[in-house]
Each structure stands twice: as structure tokens, then as C-alpha cells.
Amino acid sequence: MRSDIGVGLIGTGFMGRCHAIAFRTAAAVFPLTIVPRMEAVADVNLSAAEEVAHRFGFARATADWRDLLDDPSVGVVAITSPNVLHKEMALAALEAGKHVYCEKPMALSLADAREMAAAAEASGVVHMVGYNYVANPAVIFARKLIDEGVLGKIIHFRCVNDEDYMADPSVPYSWRCRRDTAGSGTLADLGGHAVSLALYLAGPIASVSARVSTVIAERPVLDGESLTRSGPPNAASAVTRTAKVENEDQAVALLQFENGALGSLSSSRVAWGRKNYLAFEINGTKGTLIFDQERLNELRLFEAGAIGDDRNGFRTVPMGPEHEPYGMFLPAKGHQIGFNDKKAIEVARLMRAIAGEIHPYPSFHDGLAVESVIEAIERSAAEGRWIEPGTLAG
Ligand SMILES: NC(=O)c1ccc[n+]([C@@H]2O[C@H](COP(=O)([O-])OP(=O)(O)OC[C@H]3O[C@@H](n4cnc5c(N)ncnc54)[C@H](O)[C@@H]3O)[C@@H](O)[C@H]2O)c1
């Protein structure tokens, strides 16, 4: 028996549209017992909400996100607003008894993330955070290879997540530059994805030692632009002043995993040429695994002693129907799934969790674990010493 659940989407920017696509795709592609129904979309920009409602088939649009909470036909709330609003919106949605699917980072601070995880636990509803890279079939397969012992004991995990969207000093000041609206900088935006992969693939992180820096200290302020406005700047906006960037452009961290493995992580939002360079390499006692998000449909695997040394080397393993859930999208290798498919896999997990078929992953608890590592990296950089995330998570 199939039933459905009303979706209330908050935000219609980059992620809002990705969520809308993902809800539609998941409903069509996966054999769900509870199917998302496009019920309502909220955005402070009402015309943007109306346009997304029209385009994606939501029944209603509103400028007030609280309308979704009062609406009994909305069962799950998807939060894709800027970081500063996540906590208030998630807590209110939990209070209203809605399932909550919140974009990362969970909140601006570890304390806020902890409060959200506690409220989620007490609520009894399903909660998930949008650390979507762990939903990639290639990453799921990497975890399977690790669990099966193909790599032997994991001894080293290194991960990088770089983009260049703020490499140009003329990129204007925005909510992403402010502590009170974004929290940390590249760590909140990109580094958290690297941490989510580290935790999923190599396990809990015992200790970190880090450095951060802000490369472009000041950015131009466009007069007349709202800090939460989506899309490119208005061409008519004039630059009359600059404002100080309050968070880091780049970060590096050494990692000590609880299982004894060493690791490193780096993240930059000012790395020219990098568009979504999220890559990891895992060394084990029996082999090595390499992944690069810009080639997200493949893994590179080296297995020691698999064949004679004269012919052995890295093999490129293309994802295909054998690697779940790639086959829900395509019956053949080489045709490739993309970012939005990964988001649909995340939504399918959300729906299956709401149906009670699986545990949600990443839940708010998993999100809290990511936030505690980010906080440890920031504290380590500030205090110049190793910090143990476990002592911060609470
Ligand atoms: N999972 C990922 O891979 C990924 C990728 C990009 C962004 N994100 C996260 O998604 C969130 C949004 O980022 P984005 O790039 O989509 O930003 P964006 O600026 O493109 O979109 C934000 C949207 O929120 C709306 N908004 C602002 N205030 C609001 C309010 N009070 N009520 C309702 N709507 C409001 C804006 O009008 C806009 O439509 C961020 O937290 C970001 O970290 C996640």
C-alpha cells in the first residue's frame, strides 16, 4: 500500500531547486511506500516561491515559512534557507511535529547544533541533514569495500573540498562572509562535506590539529542588495564601501582517527579553477581507494597482490547497476548519474525512514558529529593545539 506525505519546502535558491527536483525524482524513481507530495513552498521572495511552485507542482506558495508549520497537510519540512535560519526553522518544525530535512551546516555553532539534535531526539520524528555526498553510489560502494576488508586495515584518510566561488576579490560581500549569518566560512560550507565523508568511511575522529586563514580580508558591499538574496547581483547596485570578511577562506587539519588511522583534510572557497573538487584517498594495509567528485561515477582501486606486480596498478571502477542505487536511474554503466540524482537518493532515504524501513542517515546526531569536528578544527586553529571533538560533542 502506497501513501503520501505533504512536503513543505523553505527556500528556492540553489538548494531549494535541488530539493524540489529531488522530491520529484525520488517519487518517480524509487519504489517508495510513502511518496512525497508537493504541498507548499515558502520564500521571503514571494514571486520566487510562486515560480518554483508553478514549475515543480507545489499546490501553494507563501512568503511566510511559518505557514507551513500551521498546515496539517505538510508532513515534512525541507529547510534550504541560509545557515542563520536553520536552527529557528528546524526547532519550530520539530515543535510542530513535522519530519525535518535540513541543509547543512545544521547551525552556526556547535551549541546550536546540540540543541537541535536534542530537540530532534525528543520529538520522535525523522530528521536528516543534507550531507549528500555520502549518498553517492560510489561512496556507498567505497564503504562496502572497506567493510569487506578489501583495503585491509585503514591506515590513512585524506580529503580535500575546494571551490573557487569566492576566489575573485570582486565577489561581493554576502551572508556567507559573516559569523552571525554563516558561522564559519569554507568549513561550514565545504569542509563539513569532507568531514561527513571522513566519519562515514574512516570512523570517528579522536583529535585534530588545524590552521585556517582568510585570504581576501575585505569584499565590496553592493548597496541595495539583501544579504539573503538569491542569484547574481543586481547590475544596478553600486559599490560604495567594503566590509571585513569575518570567517575563513581556507582551512587545513591533521586528523587522528579513533581506529588509529591518520588523516588530513583541507578546504578552500578561494581555490581558482576548482568547481566541486571533493576528493579523497584512503590507504589500507592491502590497498588504496581514490575518489573525485568531479568524476563522481567512478572509483580508482589498487589491490596489493591482485595480479603480478608487472601488470598491477590502479583500476578505474565505473559505477553501474551493480552499485546500489545507481540502477534505479540507469540500467547501464557509462551513462552517469549526477548531483541531483544523489540528492534524490538522499530524499528516498528520508522517505524510507519516515516509512520506518531504515534509520535516517545522516541524522541530526550524525550532523552534530560533523559540527563537533568543525568546531574542533576552529578551536585548534585559534588555540594552536590538538583538540578532541569528542570532548565537545556533549
Ligand atoms: N548540500 C549541498 O551540497 C549544498 C550546496 C549548496 C548549499 N547548501 C546549503 O543550502 C543552504 C542554502 O544555500 P543556497 O546556496 O541554496 O542559498 P541561496 O541564497 O541560493 O538560497 C537561499 C534561499 O533562502 C531564501 N530565504 C532567505 N530567507 C528566508 C526566509 N526568512 N524564509 C524563507 N526563505 C528565505 C532566499 O530567498 C533564497 O531563495 C545553505 O545552508 C547552504 O550551506 C548545501
Structural features, described:
This protein is α/β, with parallel strands linked by helices. It folds into two domains: 130 residues, Rossmann fold (3-Layer(aba) Sandwich); 250 residues, 2-Layer Sandwich (Dihydrodipicolinate Reductase, domain 2). Helix content is 32%, strand content 25%. It contains eleven helices and 16 strands. An eight-stranded mixed beta sheet has the order 8-11-12-7-13-14-15-16. A six-stranded parallel beta sheet has the order 3-2-1-4-5-6, with helices on both faces. The protein has a two-stranded antiparallel sheet with strand order 9-10. The structure holds nicotinamide-adenine-dinucleotide (NAD).
Identify the CATH homologous superfamily of the largest domain: Dihydrodipicolinate Reductase, domain 2
What's the helix count?
11
The run of helices and strands is EHEHEHEHEHEHEHHEEEEEEEEEHHH
Principal-axes geometry comes out as globular
Overall number of domains: 2
CATH topology of the largest domain, which one? Dihydrodipicolinate Reductase, domain 2
Tell me which CATH architecture of the largest domain applies here.
2-Layer Sandwich
The Cα radius of gyration reads 21 Å
Which CATH class of the largest domain applies here? Alpha Beta
Mean pLDDT: 95
**Counted beta strands:** 16
Structural class, judged by helices and strands? alpha/beta
